[in-house]
């Protein structure tokens, strides 16, 4: 299920397999959606597994009265009967995609799980528009699907309306898991899902798409492009994505006539639920891409640290692999890797093998010998796996004055630490910032090389400084991308500062000038110091 891409075209296709969030169940007092077997039929699949297609009718689109069809397929594994009920796994696709064919979930069927896979609102043959995991819409859809699972006589039940249920999927197929579990927690007082396995998904959607208000242009355009074939997005979102790319700022309604995406996405992710005091008390297998340029490693860290209880975290595993939503890193130059050493270390195979083994232990209660619970396991570009308890910075390195031109020029690299050193977690820097222009911007990340001339960006990610008005000598804390990297002997870890970035193409400063940080201190999460 782990996906990478080496070109923009491939990444748009990836995104069509990717952004995730979901929600479950009708709001209190609302009529429950009804199930209609509009396409009920037994599909031609290999013996011993039966498949049934159907659609349910869910909540109408805003301002409309017609209920929306949400279509799904239920796969029943060999041997599943009312006398021998089995746990169920729910699956959904990434952005622009559609529900899985049997082969895509065969590993779970072979392991004795039933599978329900569904087309999310606005995609596949489901109706409506994609509201990017709005609790009131996609959340209601997921809750209705849980009710479908609860009525299957061959599914193991933990109580009335409470099936033994796990969930899988990446990107958009990870988001539905969070919105579903949180919405069930909000409406029923329990998440109902018994285990989640979200991959390459988000904690805060606005911060993912526009960190510090600076739009990840290539991904905003790819998101829009991937939804065009099915006209998935509401018209105002298409308009907002174009506005963001053109104006260089994330539309928040402050400019007359523009959309307010901050408000539109306010509830669409774990952050909103966490801000309202909700935590999930269920085990999770979190997969995140170290080289993910859309939902970067930091988003996974936030879900690990904030979206679940301490008890749940002790029963959970975090794995970061080299991959995710990936675009070529040309300016500044980055590195390419597509490996998963941590799943291999923990389960002897890929992430799917780890996923099945994790579910066997937490859903079936089997002693599988699986280790690594309560820890974060991060892949380095060199195909090594490092394990940490916390991503917090623990080491400070003073590097003096850092400066770059705005809007033009090449990346500049400043030495931070000589190898050998291993850095794994979330670094940041502090210092006194001066920028005299308007809409002052620069992009920062960590790099590794033998000299500033050959230093390459670690795991391809940068984060922006965004100062809308002039500042002189103001103390700032500046976020740097989360990383996992081994700096070998004979090489240096650098702070790379660049006026432009291909991920944030067109988002540099509009006026010439310079960004200067004096008394700069880089705070690093060093392992084994």
UniProtKB/TrEMBL annotation:
SUPFAM superfamilies assigned to the protein according to its UniProt record, in alphabetical order: alpha/beta-Hydrolases
Domain Xaa-Pro dipeptidyl-peptidase-like: 72-310
UniProt keyword list: Hydrolase, Signal
Signal peptide: 1-22
A GO term for molecular function: hydrolase activity
Superkingdom, taxonomy of origin: Bacteria
InterPro entries the UniProt entry points to: AB_hydrolase_fold, FrsA_esterase, Xaa-Pro-like_dom
UniProt keyword Hydrolase, yes or no: yes
Assigned protein family: Belongs to the AB hydrolase superfamily.
Classification via PANTHER family: DIENELACTONE HYDROLASE DOMAIN-CONTAINING PROTEIN, DIENELACTONE HYDROLASE DOMAIN-CONTAINING PROTEIN-RELATED
Protein name per Swiss-Prot or TrEMBL: CocE/NonD family hydrolase
């Amino acid at each position: 299920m782990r996906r990478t891409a080496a070109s923009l075209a491939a990444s748009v296709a990836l995104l069509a397999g990717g952004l995730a969030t979901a929600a479950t169940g009708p709001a209190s007092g609302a009529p429950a959606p009804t199930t209609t077997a509009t396409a009920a039929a037994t599909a031609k699949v290999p013996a011993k597994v039966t498949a049934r297609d159907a659609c349910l009718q869910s909540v109408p689109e805003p301002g409309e009265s017609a209920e929306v069809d949400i279509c799904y397929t239920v796969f029943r594994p060999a041997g599943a009967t009312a006398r021998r009920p089995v746990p169920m796994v729910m699956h959904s696709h990434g952005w622009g995609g559609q529900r899985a064919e049997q082969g895509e979930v065969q590993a779970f069927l072979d392991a004795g799980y039933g599978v329900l896979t569904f087309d999310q609102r606005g995609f596949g043959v489901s109706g409506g528009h994609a509201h990017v995991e709005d609790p009131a819409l996609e959340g209601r859809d997921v809750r209705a699907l849980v009710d479908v699972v609860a009525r299957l006589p061959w599914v193991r039940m933990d109580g009335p309306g409470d099936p033994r249920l796990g969930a899988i999927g990446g990107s958009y197929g990870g988001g539905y898991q969070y919105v579903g579990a949180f919405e069930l927690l909000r409406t029923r007082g329990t998440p109902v899902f018994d285990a989640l396995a979200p991959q390459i998904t988000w904690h805060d959607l606005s911060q993912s798409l526009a960190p510090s208000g600076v739009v990840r242009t290539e991904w905003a355009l790819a998101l829009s492009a991937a939804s065009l074939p099915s006209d998935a997005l509401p018209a105002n979102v298409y308009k907002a994505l174009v506005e963001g790319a053109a104006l260089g700022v994330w539309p928040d309604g402050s400019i007359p006539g523009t959309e307010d995406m901050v408000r539109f996405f306010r509830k669409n992710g774990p952050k909103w639920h966490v801000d309202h005091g909700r935590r999930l008390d269920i085990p999770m297998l979190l997969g995140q891409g170290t080289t993910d340029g859309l939902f970067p490693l930091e988003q996974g860290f936030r879900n690990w640290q904030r979206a679940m209880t301490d008890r749940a975290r002790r029963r959970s595993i975090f794995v970061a692999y080299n991959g995710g939503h990936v675009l070529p890193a040309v300016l500044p130059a980055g590195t390419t890797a597509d490996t998963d050493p941590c799943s291999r270390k923990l389960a002897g195979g890929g992430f799917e093998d780890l996923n099945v083994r994790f579910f066997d232990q937490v859903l079936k209660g089997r002693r599988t010998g699986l280790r690594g619970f309560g820890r974060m396991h991060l892949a380095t570009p060199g195909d090594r796996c490092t394990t940490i308890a916390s991503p917090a910075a623990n080491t400070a390195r003073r590097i003096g004055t850092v400066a770059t031109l705005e809007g033009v020029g090449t990346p500049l690299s400043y030495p931070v630490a000589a190898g050998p050193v291993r850095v794994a977690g979330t670094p940041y820097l502090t210092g006194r910032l001066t920028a005299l222009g308007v809409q002052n911007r620069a992009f920062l990340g960590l790099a590794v090389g033998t000299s500033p001339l050959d230093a390459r960006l670690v795991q391809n990610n940068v984060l922006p400084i965004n100062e809308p008005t002039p500042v002189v000598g103001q103390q700032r804390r500046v976020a740097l991308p989360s990383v996992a990297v081994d700096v070998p002997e004979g090489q240096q870890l650098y702070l790379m500062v660049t006026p432009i970035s291909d991920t944030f193409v067109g988002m540099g400063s509009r006026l010439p000038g310079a960004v200067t940080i004096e008394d700069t201190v880089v705070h690093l999460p060093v392992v084994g110091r």
